[in-house]
Amino acid sequence: MWCGVSAALWPVRCRSFLLQCRNICSGNVGRKSVVDGVLPSFRSVCGEDGVSLSEAIREQHGKDESVHKCCPPDVVVFPRSVDEVSALAKICHMHCLPIIPFGTGTGLEGGVGAMKGGVCFSLRNMDQVLDLHVEDFDVTVEPGVTRKALNSYLRDTGLWFPVDPGADASLCGMAATSASGTNAVRYGTMRENIMNLEVVLADGTIINTAGKGRRPRYDWPDETSQSRKENAGYNLTNLFVGSEGTLGIITKTTLRLYGIPEAVVSAVCSFPSVQAAVDSTVQILQSGVPIARIEFLDDVMIDACNRFSSLSYPVTPTLFLEFHGSERSLEEQVNTSEEITQCNGGSDFQWAKDEETRSRLWKARHDAWYAALALRPGCKAYATDVCVPLSMLPQIIVETKEDLIANKLTGPIAGHVGDGNFHCLMVLDPNDPDELQRVHLFTERLARRALAMSGTCTGEHGVGLGKRALLVEEMGAQAIQVMQSLKETLDPKNLMNPGKVLQ
Amino acid sequence: FQVGLLVSVKRFFLFLFEIRVKPDKSGVVTDGVKHSMNPFCEIAVEEAVKLKEKKLIKEVVAVSCGPQQAQETIRTALAMGADRGIHVQVAGKDYENLGPLQVSKIMAALAKKEEAQLVILGKQAIDDDCNQTGQMTAALLDWPQGTFASEVSFEGDKLKVVREIDGGLETITINTPAVVTADLRLNTPRYATLPNIMKAKKKKIAIMKPEDLGVDITSRVEVLRVDEPPQREAGVKVETVQDLVGKLKDSGLV
C-alpha cells in the first residue's frame, strides 16, 4: 500500500505524523447525537459518577506520553467490574460507537487517541489484586493495578513481578502492548509471563483466553520448570497480548511471579567501541551467566549523563550490568563477566553490592532521559524503538550514528543490548517544523534499516498510531491480510480502538 | 560492643489502599483490606538488622502487640533478619483501644525483661500518626531518646543520632541504653526474599499476655466518632471580577 504513495505526498505525511488527529477528530455531528442518546444507558450501568463529559477529563484520556497530539474521546466511562464493561460494550456495539480502553495513559505510541471519537473506557476503578497463589508463583490482577502497586502488595511474600518498562504502567495495559523492559534478558517480556487473560470483546462477550480460573504453564525462561503444562486449542492468550486494544478490552490478567533476588550486584564497564561492547554482551550470554540487566549507552549519551549528573565516566560506549542471585552465584557471575569484558578491551570495570553505591553506579542510566533533555533545554524528547538480532547491533548503531550526524540531529542512544533493542532519544524542538520533518524521516529510515537486518520496527513500545505503515512492511502483505481477517472476525464493526495497529 | 536490641513492629493497612470509614462511624473498614508492616517499622527493622550485620548488636528481637495476625508481621521482621520474635497477645476490643501509652508500657517491661540495650521503633504508625510510643517508652524507662533519626552510629559506648527537625538536622550524642525512633531517610528497607521467608519459619516467636508483664492495658481514651474528611466540592466559575468579589463577600471570606 505505502509503495503507491508518491514522493509529493511525503511532506503531507510528515506533517500529519505529528498532527494526525486534528482533522479526523474535529467533531462528527452525527456521532455526537448518538453519544448523547446513549448517555442515560451508560449512567444506568456505571452510575452518575461513572460517566464524564467534562473537557478536562476527556483530554486527559485522549493522550499518552508520546508526541502524538491529544485526541479526546466524546465521553469517558469508568466501569467498576467486568459485567459493567460488558454492558457498556454491548451498548456501544449496538450504536456503532468506537471503544478505546485506557489504563494509565503511559504508552509511547499514541495508542489511546480517539481517532474517530467514541467512548473511552477508563479502567482505573477496577483495581483489585485477586487470587494470589504464592506456592504456584501466580497472581491475577485487574486493569487498575499498576506494576509498582503489585510489587508493593507482594512485598511480604518474597515474590515480585519483574517486567519493568520504566513507567508505573497498568499491568493489563502492559499486556495489551506486550511491554518489555530492562530485565527482559533474564525474565522475559509480558508475552512470556502471562498465563491467562479475561477479555471483553467488541460485542460485550466475556472470554477467558485460557479458560476461567486456569493458570497453565507454557515454557518458563528460567530454571524452575514445573511439569504441569496445558496446551489446549489455539493460543488465544498470545493473540490478545500486544493487540493494543484493537481486538478486545483486557479486564484481568494472570501473571507469573518470580522470587525476589537474594542479592543484587551492579557493574559498569567502558569499551573502546560499540563492537567491543556488543561482543562482550554476546559472550556473557553465551557463557550462561543469567544476567538480569545489560544496558548500553553510547558516547553521546554518556557525555550527556556526565554533564547532567556531574559524573566522570569515560566518554565511550559503556555497558551497565546488573546481576541477581544468591551471594555465592553472584561472585561467579561478576568474575566471569569481568574477564569477558577485559578480553574485549573493556576498562574501568566497577561493581557494587550495597544499595547506595549501586544507585550511584546506575545513576547515569536511570537519568538518561533527563540527561538527554538537558542537552537542549526547552526541547521535547521522542524515543525511537527498534530491535535487531544481536549480531547486527553494532552495524545498525554505527549506521544510525552516521545518519544522526549527517542530519544534524540530537539522538543519544540507550539500549537493552541483551535483546538487541535500542532507543535513540531524539531531542527536538516541537516548534521547528524542519526539525520535526527530519526526525520523522530519520525514524522511518531507522525502522527500515532494522527491517532490512531481519529486525522489527518496534522492540517494546508497540505499533500504536505511528508505525502502522512500517508494520505492513515488516510483516508482508499476506500476514497483514491474516491479521486483518482476525480483526474482522472479532470486531466486524471496527469499534475496538480504530486506527491503531492496522490501517 | 555487643548489645541486645528490641525492635517494635506494627501491622496496618498496606499504605497504597484507600481507607473507608465504617457506616456507623465507629472506625475504619478493616475486613478484606491487605495488611502489611507499618512503613516506619520496616525502616526500624532494617536499621536493627544493619547494626547486627556490622556486628555492633548481638541479637535483634522483634516485638508486636495484637491479635493472631500480628505474628505475620513478626515473621516478616524475622525474614528481614531479626533473630526471634515476641508476640504480646491483645485481641478484640482491647486491641481496638490499644494506644501508645499501653504499648510503651509493654515495651518498657520487655526491655527490662530482655535486658535490651537499645529499643528501636518507627517514628509513628500510619493509622493513628500518634508519634508517641517511642518517646513514652523512653520516659517510662528513664532512658535517653534519639527520635526522628536519619542516621544512627555508635561512638564508643555512646550513640550518635542525627535527627530530622523542622530547621534541618540536629546531631546529638546519647548514652546507652537508649530508645531510637526511625524516620524516613534512615535507610531503604530490604525486601524479604523467599529463602529468608523459609528460614524465618524456623525462628522462634514467644507468646505472652500483657498481664504476664504486669501491664494494665485499660485505655484512658475513648473514641467517640470517626469521620471522613469533607468531600471536595466542585468549584464555581465566575464571569467577572465583581462576581468574584461578591462571592467572596457572601461566604464571609472578605
Automatic annotation (TrEMBL), chain A:
Gene3D superfamilies: 3.30.465.10, 3.30.70.2740, Vanillyl-alcohol Oxidase, Chain A, domain 4. Belongs to the FAD-binding oxidoreductase/transferase type 4 family. Keywords: Acetylation, FAD, Flavoprotein, Mitochondrion, Oxidoreductase, Signal, Transit peptide. This is Probable D-lactate dehydrogenase, mitochondrial. One of its GO terms (biological process) is lactate catabolic process. Its cofactor is FAD. Involved in D-lactate, but not L-lactate catabolic process. InterPro entries: FAD-bd_oxidored_4_C, FAD-bd_PCMH, FAD-bd_PCMH-like_sf, FAD-bd_PCMH_sub2, FAD-linked_Oxase-like_C, Oxid_FAD_bind_N, Vanillyl_alc_oxidase_C-sub2. Residues 1-16 form the signal peptide. It comes from Gouania willdenowi (Blunt-snouted clingfish).
UniProtKB/TrEMBL annotation, chain B:
Keywords: Electron transport, Mitochondrion, Transport. SMART domains: ETF. Residues 25-217 form the Electron transfer flavoprotein alpha/beta-subunit N-terminal domain. GO terms for molecular function: electron transfer activity. Pfam families: ETF (PF01012). It comes from the Eukaryota. It is found in: Mitochondrion matrix. One of its GO terms (cellular component) is mitochondrial matrix. GO terms for biological process: amino acid catabolic process; fatty acid beta-oxidation using acyl-CoA dehydrogenase. Heterodimer of an alpha and a beta subunit. Heterodimer composed of ETFA and ETFB. Identified in a complex that contains ETFA, ETFB and ETFRF1. Interacts with ACADM. Belongs to the ETF beta-subunit/FixA family. Heterodimeric electron transfer flavoprotein that accepts electrons from several mitochondrial dehydrogenases, including acyl-CoA dehydrogenases, glutaryl-CoA and sarcosine dehydrogenase. It transfers the electrons to the main mitochondrial respiratory chain via ETF-ubiquinone oxidoreductase. Required for normal mitochondrial fatty acid oxidation and normal amino acid metabolism. ETFB binds an AMP molecule that probably has a purely structural role. The electron transfer flavoprotein serves as a specific electron acceptor for several dehydrogenases, including five acyl-CoA dehydrogenases, glutaryl-CoA and sarcosine dehydrogenase. It transfers the electrons to the main mitochondrial respiratory chain via ETF-ubiquinone oxidoreductase (ETF dehydrogenase). This is Electron transfer flavoprotein subunit beta. It comes from Gouania willdenowi (Blunt-snouted clingfish). The lineage of its organism: Eukaryota, Metazoa, Chordata, Craniata, Vertebrata.
